[in-house]
Specification:
147 residues, alpha+beta, Aspartate Aminotransferase, domain 1, 5 helices, 19% strand
Length: 147
């Protein structure tokens, strides 16, 4: 996604949402290089900006209602270690197992979010890569079986 495409994505959101989404985008891009960035058109979280590896969402950002912003973090969801380390700090923002909602980016515990992105992204990417490799191997083997 280009910067212009991202700015076009923001046109209908509140001032706080625009600022929060810009800042979250920067936080993710600075701490998790190489992720695909696109606006999701699928069934779940339709219209959110996804940060993905191997076609699988790792992070999603988008509006929540008219004034709040939400940030979905699959590394946090999948890591008991990250949950134990940052659960208390994030508790006032959590709206689900992997999601936080807030009105103003400046109220967020940025050290916790940065740690989740830095520690969690490589683990998720490695896991998705291994899963993709296993699926490719399984398909190759099933195609090689005699009929």
């Amino acid at each position: 996604m280009t910067d212009d495409e991202f700015e076009q994505y923001l046109v209908d959101f509140s001032h706080d949402q625009v600022a929060s989404l810009r800042n979250l985008r920067d936080l993710i891009n600075q701490n998790a290089e190489g992720l695909e960035e696109f606006v999701n058109t699928g069934r779940w979280l339709n219209g959110f900006v996804f940060y993905a590896a191997f076609g699988q969402m790792i992070y999603a950002i988008g509006p929540k209602g008219k004034v709040k912003t939400t940030f979905h973090m699959m590394p946090y969801y999948g890591s008991p270690t990250l949950q134990a380390r940052h659960g208390d700090t994030l508790s006032r923002f959590l709206t689900g197992r992997s999601c936080i909602a807030f009105r103003n980016y400046l109220e967020l515990p940025l050290d916790a979010l940065t740690d989740i992105i830095l520690r969690g992204t490589p683990v998720m990417v490695e896991m998705m890569e291994a899963r993709g490799h296993a699926e490719r191997t399984r398909r190759t083997r099933s195609q090689q079986k005699p009929t």
